[in-house]
Amino acid sequence: MSTNEELLAVNNEQIGAKERRSSSFTDRLSIGPIAAATRLMSSFSRQSQPTASAELTDTNNKSSTSLSFFSPFTKRLLPTRNRSTSPKSAPTLSTSSPFLVNSPHTMRSSATTPSGLNYNLKSPTTCAPNIDSAPETVDLDFNFELTYNQLRELAEVNCNYFTQQKTDVCRRFEHLLIQILHSVELSVPLIQYLRDNFHHFDYSTEIRANGYRTLAVAHGQACLRTLDILRQVDTKRVGLLFNLMYSSRLFQDLESWTKVLVGMQHLLSFSVKMVDYSCKKVLCIDANEVPLDVELEYFRIVAFDSEYFFGRTCGFQFAQSMQTMLTFLLAGLATYHETYNRSIPFAAARLATAPKYILFPEQRAKKCATIFRDCDYLFCKSFWNLVDHDYIKMGSRYIAPSVTVSKYFQIGPEPIELDSIIVPPPTASASVEEPKGQVAGTIGAGSDNPTGSGSAQPKQLVNVKLLSSQLREGMSELPIRKGDLETSATKTLPMSDQILMHVHGGGFIATSSTTHEVYLRPWALALEIPIVSVDYSLAPEYPFPRAIEECFYAYAWILKNASKLGWTGKTILLVGDSAGGNLITAVTIKAIEVGLRKPDAIICFYTPFLLGYSMSPSRLMAIMDPLLNTGFLWRCLAAYAGIKADNEPPEDELTSTKDSQITPGKDLQNNVDSPSARQTDPEQQSQPKVQASGRMREDTYYARLSDIVGSRQAYLLRKLRESTLPNHPYMSPLRALDDILRQFPTTYLI
Description:
Protein name: Hormone-sensitive lipase
CATH topology of the domain at 390-424 and 459-605: Rossmann fold
EC number: 3.1.1.23, 3.1.1.79
Number of helices: 23
CATH superfamily of the domain at 390-424 and 459-605: Alpha/Beta hydrolase fold, catalytic domain
Oligomer: single chain
Region (Disordered): 42-64, 78-116, 648-696
Organism: Adineta ricciae
Family: Belongs to the 'GDXG' lipolytic enzyme family.
């Protein structure tokens, strides 16, 4: 028996048939915060390597928490290239489960996973097998050809049946089936083209994963769901009961999935153009490299196709458990929009009709698409900050466990000196032109503290929170008072060798450390180390670079005052999710630039590393994302960049005619200066920008953009495009110099 067969046999004994079947790759994402943190920190019992590396974590593993989080999960590496790919060995599509798990892997967006998550991807010696750069499949367990063939055959069979019938219901079904056949006919060549070029954009030759693969798999999942509806139609179409009981529901379901297939077809078509314009080299394409008429096509997809993904098909690309949660979240979003800034009687009346957005998916989809298109950043901030309301926080106390030490305090404003390096307190001033959002004493603060990241606070002060499972030596110097102890401390433990600095996410405009305590508290208990969470000031009241200044100042303060936090000063880890991951990366860049001690490792959860105005697969996937939609993300970026949010843009701003090329704006935060910011790309200097006059004049472009997305949105997009600030290395770490990135500590991407 070959090695691969032995490995497969061993794992087939360990994994039951039920566990080997899944309708979505996210069904296996069961790793909890305690397990994640336990495995995370156990890896740091060894000395962290100072070399820069990027580790991709397979969070789909379901092994016990005793395993090290970043140690090899198993030794079940199965080289998929050794499997037979002949038609005879192609997996048979199951009616009950569209995916066949033919290997023990659970990572579904790459053809193989590294045997250990601590190896250096650039190392010449790895235990991963050699892989041909032209994969036959995108997903380990998904057979595209079989799915598309079954979908076409079943659609043709049903279409032929309804063509012979004379009723209006049958005519409507026939029309939908023709649309499905036409969409699949157009999509299959696009999928094939993308598949032929996947390898140009993969993370590495060992880890075959990129956004184009995800788009292709999402289209395959939509086809599988459509195939399921067609099977129901095929079995129930004959007889009187079809018209009386089944036709209405099945037609609505089939219509929704038909729209999704059409929308996905548009995304795939645009993806093919992106592959061509990128010269098959980069995932993120500078907007100046894309003709303006093609860019307008992207905004048409954003404006007109996003509604298809918020109704009955909401969250189809995720696991079933996620779909249910996202459905209720969108219903809550639609209801909150109707009550936003309304009188209490009106809001109460609207709340009484809120269930309609659960019962009628089409209304929910239309409402949410309108919100994403037309709402301002204040609404986005207010909605996300609902989780920071006093009543929500009171309820979360019954969910999150208690810790011994929970102290919320402020640091500053004195400069910090470390090894002859002076770190000044935050100096970036607040924006005086922006309207205040929720100036809440309940945002970001502990139960007994009125200050927080969302509230007005003294200049040059930074809000932080200390969480610890035990009272440790030195903490009394803070000092720790009786009100800072949630549970009685029976004894004082020695100082910890490790400390974790956490920076929360929230699009730079919302949430706080308190909202993230649902996992910070379990981390503190499981890791048994102090955790310091930074409550940085939020945009738009405090735009870039205020948040970075506060996080960097907090980092320096932690290094300077290690003993006060019960830390020996040995190992410091930086952790951030979403916007927080962006901020801890910027802190690392600043530390390297000024010569301050680097963190021993940084862990970034779903972090945006490139905020500049560009085209990429992630921008396409955000169109159908019900949680972090494109419309929300634009507004968050504009608020963080300090772009003034006018209710109505000046008329001359959108109608002024310019024959010259788009020029970068010079009015935003030009005082930000660093070695990384002063870098220039020789290739960018030598290559002239695409001339808009070649296909479309700039004034014509903005006039059409205004017709597509509305004048307010067009004004915002224009300011984002003209601004150079989002490409600053502190805002887009991918723009940092290679010399800086080479000095990065071990970096984990989750």
